[in-house]
Amino acid sequence: MAALAVAAAPAAKAAVPAAHAPSSPGLAGALFALLLVLGLILGLAWMLRRLPGAGFRPAEGLRVVASLQLGAKERAVVVEVGGQQLLLGVTAAGISRLHELPQPLPPAEPPKLPNLKDLPNFAQLLSQRLRKDA
């Protein structure tokens, strides 16, 4: 009887994993899951844009002209409201009007990109640096 139980045990162990072996979803299942997640992200972004007060659209008639960080949580901000520019103090405690500008600030110059032709040759700089270190 013991011999019969010993012989039956390996056969039972071999049969159990085959019946309960988890199968992987495969490439098609992974692609479907990826498309589902991307569709969910796009759907939520569309819905968020449709909600009132979403914050993605700039307020009409209100524009930040300049901002200057004064401390860890303090800043001075110039805003334009209806053609009028105001200097505001922004702190963690609140916002207060500091001054009404009689003349608007001149528009800031857009940042200039460096001219790639004026940059030094990287290969020459590297060879000079390696010669100095040797």
Description of the structure:
A hairpin with a 4-residue loop joins strand 3 (84-90) and strand 4. By secondary structure, this protein is α+β, with helices and mostly antiparallel strands. The protein is 42% helix and 21% strand. It has a 4-stranded antiparallel sheet, with no helix packed on it.
What is the makeup of the main sheet? 4 strands, antiparallel
Number of helices: 3
Kindly report how far apart the N and C termini lie: 83 Å
* Percent in strands: 15-25%
Q: Which structural class matches the secondary elements?
A: alpha+beta
Q: Quick recap of the structure?
A:
With 134 residues, this protein is of the alpha+beta class.
Task: Describe this protein with a few key phrases.
134 residues; 4-stranded antiparallel β-sheet; 3 helices; 4 strands
Give the SSE map:
Elements: H1 2-20, H2 26-50, E1 62-69, E2 75-81, E3 84-90, E4 95-100, H3 122-133
Antiparallel strand pairs: 1-2, 2-3, 3-4
